[in-house]
Design brief:
The structure holds 2 protein chains of 2 kinds.
Chain A (H helix, E strand, L loop, with lengths): L17 H6 L4 H9 L2 H10 L12 H6 L12 E6 L8 H8 L1 H15 L3 E6 L4 H16 L15 E6 L9 H8 L23 E5 H13 L1 H6 L8 E7 L6 E6 L4 H8 L9 E5 L19 H6 L8 E6 L4 H15 L5 H18 L5 H13 L9 H15 L1 H10 L6
Parallel strand pairs in A: 1-2, 1-4, 2-3, 5-8
Antiparallel strand pairs in A: 5-6, 7-8
Chain B lengths: L3 H14 L6 H12 L4 H11 L3 H8 L13 E6 L2 H6 L1 H12 L5 E2 L5 E6 L11 E3 L2 E3 L4 H10 L2
Parallel strand pairs in B: 1-3
Antiparallel strand pairs in B: 1-4, 2-3, 4-5
Helix pairs in contact in B: 1-2, 2-3, 3-4
The chains are: A alpha/beta, B alpha+beta.
Chain lengths: 424, 154
């Protein structure tokens, strides 16, 4: 099985230095692109590869790149932002890529910048990622030194300045417009109506925003072609995917596997199944803001469309396992506390609604809930659902709640009936 | 007063954005590295240096989780309370830390050695429970490990 994204990653060891990376074929795609291809050719290759955004939304990457205005648009500079603000609970795939092979991200960013004709690129890095930060700084310096960054890249008229932006931490920065606000030195607020950042981004200029894993795929598409890339996958979305598993399994971790690998295969073959003494009850398949799935869904392939079809989302493919010794009400309460604390507070439904949801869940968990509370929670999932808030934070917060109410209703009712948490 | 070294570091930040106010988050992180937190006086100095109003800068300062507007101890412990750490034993970690340090979340030990704060997911879910001390990550926490980590930070 081919694992392009992780082939040079040696867990526990320092990543490849630039000369080793070049020796293993690194930066060949940059040479090919800037010397032999036009920006349009690069976009066409990425479009044909069926690469979809790995940050969670699954938007087709080639379409996003093609959406940048042409150079007739006089606004300069144009910007590229690599979203390394990995803060979705349960998600650590980008850490794996950043720590393991920072040059791969830089190489992918150069391709994206070349295709979108951007002159300035930022890596938006979350705090608390000290090893990725150190390694990115080193890798960027090496890439400048070797002429892959800066003025007249590889002797062409293509220029790219790349900078590291260290965030001071807030989950909402992962939202496209909020991230731009944050880079501008403001509170990270999604804004009244999210404009397309390609048309109106950083300081009003055209701006392309891509997730780390998305960008890391680009060099392999240029090196091996769109057909090869599609062949890596078991479904119509191209490529491999970094799947991760956490919770009470034998081997929590992250693995690069074909897009469309089943939940069961990831859980059992790679994560080693459940630990002794605990049973599987459910899983959030794509991070904290996705709907629970059950045992009956385990043979479902993990890709954007297949998980959508069973009422959840691929999200970041960060599987968080719920076991039978963990209280589902307590778990949902923990999730809602996170979303309440991380809400930017800009729009009322989110600012007020999620803390209210937390309050109701606390009542139930502490044995003071009533049967009417379940109706109230159901109502919240509608009132905070898609289309009622400026961004996707509140709707995302409602996904684990609405599915828990559906799949673990007995547990909620038991808390109310027994007037305590049965797990305590 | 901002030292010349701090000002130099901030100017380098400004250069990567090409605008003074865009460097405000980085500037606060730089200033904080030296004294641990952003006092009213530092906030005023920074605002002046960056060409912002104090209120504007305070609005930014109070938005972000890792900019501190109150004094912190010599070492800042950020303990993850997100879902995977919660499943894997956050309650025990918190109890042990608060008992050992004799403080609650959000507080600083009377000797000014540690500040204990809850934080969102640290992206170390394959080795939960986790925390950082002064930005460095510690994983697979248990009481024994926590004691050793605390001892190493004097």
């Amino acid at each position: 099985m081919e694992r392009p994204l992780t082939q040079h990653i040696r867990p526990g060891k320092e990543p490849l230095e630039i000369k080793q990376y070049e020796g293993a074929g690194g930066y060949a795609s940059v040479r090919t692109a800037v010397k032999e291809m036009s920006p349009g050719d690069v976009i066409a290759a990425v479009k044909a590869s069926n690469l979809r955004g790995r940050g969670g939304a699954g938007f087709p990457t080639g379409t996003k790149w093609a959406d940048m205005p042409t150079l007739d648009d006089a606004r300069r500079p144009r910007f590229l932002i690599a979203d390394a603000d990995e803060m979705e609970p349960g998600t650590f795939k980008d850490r794996f890529l950043l720590e393991g092979n920072p040059h791969q991200l830089i190489e992918g960013m150069i391709l994206a910048a070349f295709s979108a004709q951007t002159e300035v690129a930022y890596i938006f890095l979350r705090p608390g990622y000290a090893p990725p930060q150190r390694r990115l700084i080193k890798a960027m310096a090496e890439a400048y030194d070797r002429g892959y960054l800066g003025k007249n890249i590889l002797g062409t008229d293509f220029n790219l300045e790349m900078h590291l932006h260290l965030s001071a931490g807030r989950y909402i920065c992962g939202e496209g417009v909020a991230m731009i606000q944050s880079l501008e030195g403001k509170r990270a607020i999604p804004g009244p109506r999210a404009p397309r950042t390609s048309k109106f981004g950083l300081w009003g200029n055209p701006t392309l925003v891509n997730n780390v894993e998305t960008l890391c795929n680009a060099p392999h598409i240029i090196n091996h072609g769109a057909e090869w890339f599609k062949g890596l996958s078991r479904c119509k979305d191209g490529g491999t995917k970094i799947f991760s598993v956490s919770g009470k399994v034998n081997r929590p971790g992250a693995w690069e596997l074909p897009m469309g690998t089943t939940l069961r295969e990831v859980l059992e073959q790679h994560a080693g199944g459940m630990r002794d003494g605990v049973k599987f009850r459910g899983v959030l398949p794509g991070g904290a803001s996705t709907d629970f799935l059950l045992e009956e869904h385990l043979d479902n392939p993990m890709d954007f469309d297949s998980l959508g079809a069973v009422g959840s989302r691929l999200g970041t493919a960060a599987m968080i396992v719920l076991d039978d010794r963990t209280c589902p009400v307590g778990m949902v309460l923990n999730l809602e506390r996170f979303f309440a604390r991380e809400s930017c507070g800009w729009c009322t439904p989110c600012r007020e609604g999620i803390p209210w949801t937390v309050h109701i869940l606390e009542q139930i968990e502490s044995g003071n809930g009533t049967p009417e509370d379940l109706d109230l929670l159901e109502a919240q999932t509608k009132l905070l659902g898609p289309g009622r808030t400026f961004c996707a934070l509140a709707p995302g917060a409602m996904e684990p709640l609405q599915s828990a109410l559906k799949y673990f209703r007995d547990d909620f009712e038991q808390h109310i009936r027994m007037r305590r948490c049965p797990w305590r | 007063m901002l030292t010349d070294d701090t000002k130099k570091e901030i100017e380098a930040q400004i250069a990567i954005y090409g605008r003074r106010e865009a460097a405000c988050i980085g500037s606060m992180l730089i200033a904080q590295r030296h004294v641990g937190w952003i006092s009213d006086e530092t906030l005023e100095d920074l605002a002046k240096f960056l060409g912002m109003t104090v209120e504007e800068l305070d609005g930014v300062a109070t938005f972000y989780n890792e900019i501190y507007r109150k004094p912190v101890g010599r070492h800042v412990i950020l303990v993850c309370d997100s879902v995977v750490c919660w499943i894997m034993g956050y309650d025990g970690v918190r109890e042990h830390l608060t008992r050992r340090l004799g403080i609650d979340l959000g507080q600083t030990t009377p000797d000014g050695r540690f500040t204990l704060l809850p934080v969102q997911c640290l992206g170390a879910c394959d080795h939960a429970p986790a925390m950082t001390v002064d930005g460095e990550l510690y994983i697979d926490l248990d009481p024994e490990k926590i004691d050793k980590i605390l001892e190493a930070h004097t």
